[in-house]
Amino acid sequence: MAEEEIEVNFQARNPSGIKLLNRLYDGHLVLNDIGVRLDEQLNNEDEELTVPTQEDINNLSDTFGKTVEAFSDITDAYGDVNNFANNFAGSTKAFAEKLITEMVDFNNGIADIGDTEGGLENYDNDKLNNWVNQLMGDIVETNDSFNALINE
Predict the structure, then answer these.
(1) 12 pairs with which residues across the strands?
(2) H or E element in which residue 124 lies
(3) How far is CA 63 from the centre of its chain?
(4) Of 32, 48, 84, 114, which one has the greatest count of Cβ atoms within 10 A?
């Protein structure tokens, strides 16, 4: 598959916020990749469920660490995520808000699983399904807002 070059014009009061936004977007790309493969397997009844793989689990763990660092840097620079989102305008702000929501939901779910004695193995299946469904919806909303941003 050939790589496609995309030009995006971000609207930001403080341009350094764009680097932080890109760090969160890197996390989104990992979740999106896993989400697409999971969705394909769930929609193909003949296919055995293999997602997430061990590599996916490692990537999710890495993404969790990187987004915790990014949110820490956002808090240091902006006070909180709302002030960070307010750094942006127009479609960039809408994209930032969707991306922040997705990554906060991801981090909260990972932290909740981590706080469960025995981890994922003992985590409540209904809570896990609800979290995965929430994340899948968040990923779609982030993609939609990104598409709106690049189509301007």
Answers:
(1) 88
(2) none
(3) 9
(4) 84
Largest CA distance in the chain: 50
Tens of pLDDT, residues 49-90: 888 899 999 999 999 999 999 999 999 999 999 999 999 999
**b (16+ CB within 10 A) / e for 42-64:** eeeeeeeeebeeeebeebbeebb
Instruction: Say whether pTM exceeds 0.70.
Output: yes
Residues 35/96, Cβ–Cβ less than 8 Å: no
The structure tokens 């990187």 sit at: 66
| Residue range 14-31: mean pLDDT, rounded | 95
Neighbours of 136 (CB within 10 A): 17
